[in-house]
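Final report, closing paragraph on structural work. Over the funding period we assembled a curated collection of sequence-structure pairs, and we close with a single example.
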Amino acid sequence: MRERAVYKEKISIDCIAVCVYLMCLPLTTVTTPFGSALKIVTFPVLAVLFIRTIMGKNKLTLNYIHFIYAVFTLYSFTGLLFLHDDRAVTQTTDMLLTFIAMLFITMRVYNSSEREMMDNAWLIAGLFCIFVAMTSTETTVGDRIVIRIFGCEEDQNQFCAYLIMPVLISLKRFIDKRKFYPIYILIILLSFYSVLRTGSRGGLLGIAAGVVIYIFIGLKSVKSRVILCLLLLFVVIGVVFFVFPLLPEDIQERYTVSSVVDDRGAGRLEIWLNLLQFDFADTGQLVHGAGMFSTYDILATSTVDLPVGVAHNTFIQILTDHGMIGLMIFMFLIFGCVIRQWKNHPVYTCAYVAVMAFSMSLSLHVFKPYINIIMMCAMTFEGETVQDKLDMQYQASALDAGVK
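Its predicted structure, as stored:
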């Protein structure tokens, strides 16, 4: 059933605070004398949520994503037993603060209007990112555009992750034929063009994966799936024949299979092989890991001829840092995030799958787009709590009994 209506429930102060936080997502990389600009925004947002919580103003609920993420966060502290440098302590502390933020943002039950407002906040953040990418004139090696947000440079691959949710929300609203729905196609096209300009192969594949999966799990009608797949095919053909030629030659070359093979994933293959060799060299280390961000020391003494300190792969990063135990907990987290919103809000499930595609070439420990998408998977909306479902079953049973 198409979701045409915009609901008119009351918008709470909590939701407004969360929307401010979501809109400020691109400010992650903006540094100030007091830390990142997003962190400065986060503290007052959490203060509002904390005060509202202790005042008993909200209906609260917890779910298995909270539990699994709490276990993963607590287990990460065991890594300090094996590595206790400043980097490890800072990162572990950030994980704890991230969990606290996620908990206060997601344990409240939001209504449909508030969910709509949060989606709008994601779109505003996406439009800002599109503007940044489209107006960038500075380039780096290979003619990839340099992304600067208020003068602070952002990694091109990480920047593309900011567009995951805006693209999928736009796709959903276009399919639902919401008001001014052609605008959402324009947002999708501009988003993909922005990604192409960055030269991020992982970014392109990640967002494309989210779109394709949404077509198959977000649409119930086979006819709608076929029509959208055909439309997607025409878009791809148009991009290849009309958009690609507008890109610099070096950028075009980056998206070819031969380029990926020749540069071995921008050197990532050597990084992965070195770290896996280190992981499997010691059984105890393989089980419990070498400590948070131990990859910096490992790669510094390896044969990798690149100035890197992370695995550029979340799974290998976690295996090296937290061992098989940490990786197993992480796999449970993935499973929980994928299934929780599968039926009610598949757009969030697809966004999580997309960011997991990003994780094959990025280390995502406290990467804000990744964390914020986990938050959307962990959120509960009215009518979805256990008590709500029991009440609906009771009402249905009572109605059936009355009919009989």
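The first strand starts at residue 31 and ends at 32. Residues 122 and 166 are 6 Å apart (CA to CA). We thank the funder for supporting this effort.
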